[in-house]
Design a protein that fits this description.
The complex is a heterodimer of chains A (448) and B (183). Chain A has 448 residues and is of the alpha+beta class. Chain A has 12 helices and 22 strands. Chain A folds into 2 domains: 286 residues, Alpha-Beta Complex (Naphthalene 1,2-dioxygenase Alpha Subunit, Chain A, domain 1); 103 residues, Rieske [2Fe-2S] iron-sulphur domain (Rieske Iron-sulfur Protein, 3-layer Sandwich), CATH 2.102.10. In chain A, a hairpin with a 5-residue loop joins β5 and β6. The termini of chain A are far apart. Chain B has a single domain, classed as Roll (Nuclear Transport Factor 2, Chain: A). In chain B, a hairpin with a 3-residue loop joins β5 and β6. The two termini of chain B are 19 Å apart. Classes of the chains: A alpha+beta (448), B alpha+beta (183). At the A-B interface, β13, α7, α10 and α11 of A face β3, α3 and β8 of B. β13 of chain A pairs parallel with β8 of chain B. Chain B: One of its GO terms (biological process) is 3-phenylpropionate catabolic process. Chain B: Belongs to the bacterial ring-hydroxylating dioxygenase beta subunit family.
Amino acid sequence: MDVSGLVDTATGRQSRAIYSSEELYRQELERIFGRCWLFLVHTSQIPEAGDYFRTFMGEDDVIVIRQKDGTIKAFLNSCTHRGNRICRSDRGNAKAFTCNYHGWSFAPDGSLSAVPLEKEAYFGELDRSRLGLVPVAHVAEYKGLVFGCFDADPPSLEDYLGDAKFFLDVWLDAMPGGTSLVGETQKMVLASNWKLPVENVCGDGYHLGWAHAGAMRAVQSLDLAGLSVGNSSTDLDGGLSVAGLNGHMALTSLDGVSGYAFYPKPKPMLDYLEFNRPQVIERLGKVRGEQLWGSQINITIFPNLQFLPGLNWFRVYHPKGPGQIEQWTWAMVENDMPAEIQAAILDNQCLTFGLAGLFDNDDGDNLAACTEQSRGWRTAQMDVFTNMALNRSGPREGFPGDIAAGLVSEHNQRYFYRRWQEHMQADNWAGVPTYNINSVVAEETIDA
Amino acid sequence: MIQNATLERPTTGQSASVEQTHSLTQTLYREARMLDEENYVDWVKLLADDLLYHMPGIETRYRRDKTDQVKDLTRMAYYNDNLTEIKKRLSRLETGTAWSEDPATRYTHIITNVEVELTAIPGEYQVFSNFYAYRNRNEREEDSLIGNRIDIWREVENSFQLVMRRIILKHNVLLSKNLNIFL
């Protein structure tokens, strides 16, 4: 389906059909979820050989397994005999995955290791070497984040992430001990199109002071520059909307502490930041060490991964049809943090975001209603708009990307829909443009 | 909340008296009515200062996986609240700017299978119950939350206060968009 008229990045317009059309959704499964690198697991979630974690790539059920040699492989969670699901646990450790239906057994490397009655009923004629689990075509890791890709010939994960790595490293590489995702998976069904929560978190600082006014009044303990409860004012110097990074985005404040603005007792976290900041500056340079580490940052990796260092939630959205998603959330920590801080982060993450989180209570309701209001005969023909602060972006010293000032703008959302359109129009990766606008990564390199 | 406490109390295995059981059962019903009516002003008065309100997240695991998904307080929990945190949740509603709570959600809490046991601490009772909480919102949004509760209630003068509550919800994927509810 031709999507050239459905999104207009120049004026900030999207057709509501993109949130409700079944046909477009099938095209998204093929051209976005079937083509892009998708987040699978953090290495901390499967540390030992035989550890596995089940997740989804688009609507495909996938098992990610730590191998004996320490590498990570991923397979479709489907028996190659009759298609049954071979693993029914969310995570665990296994020496083999045995199908409940007829007992075919697969080793952690995906090979078909045993078939009941192989000699007697198959007369020894079954070619087991051709019936291993179907692997995800590419699996690669970036500093603990493991991604998978179904496409036969994608760009490398490093190239796919591009200059978004500048922001990823503010969490992944700030401290020498690395990072972990902690806590069991918080899963929730939301009657929303998958693009709406991504759009919301990737750039929508506008909704924070209004939609979350109640939650902010309840839990805010520090000032958050650039935002105010009730949207009575905004400070354009307080933050940046960063896009133009191969479809990835960052929305960040610049004060180095506001990530912890919603913690009831932020002092231990602020002490941790203060104590470690010199070495972070040494590792990441002054811009990131002083202005980004500890700040409220929303990071989006196209298409469906988002995480907020500071508030410390990490989330993927699994599409379940045009009007439904499963939202999976974990808490994120730096391994160098003391155990008390890690525990406080897990608890506060659950209090603020996630199933019973004060903020998610607000978002779920709005995103579901936006989806619903795109399904009617008349509403499906209408447009919605992300046209705030058009043509007010540019370079900024020390940062990669095309940047608009402030947290309140719709600059990032326009780049998100631009990327969506680029993928939906292209037949394959050769037709998808690569852009890292205003690249500065070369001069302030990540790994010294 | 960083918690060293656990919900576990040494129990005597003995049932409470008919009178005690009746009083506590009535307390549970009264509490359910308060929650149905969103009467949080009176509900908070039922909560002890040293409250632990705990709802662990439950993953789907094979039986051979012996991980304690229920009692371990260091694991992810949808609620792991002390009284201050409960009050913080309630304060969001009181701001008048929690737009997603207006119009109100309509709640019914059904409490069943009540058992009251004595603990080794005089005046503290372990109370088992099951709940069926029904929510309906806007025009046709509805969901049902069903599970078990294990409480510790403390006798204070002539009434009872909730000291600890563990809520064991049966969901893996929550089949609705939030948990804006106390169970």
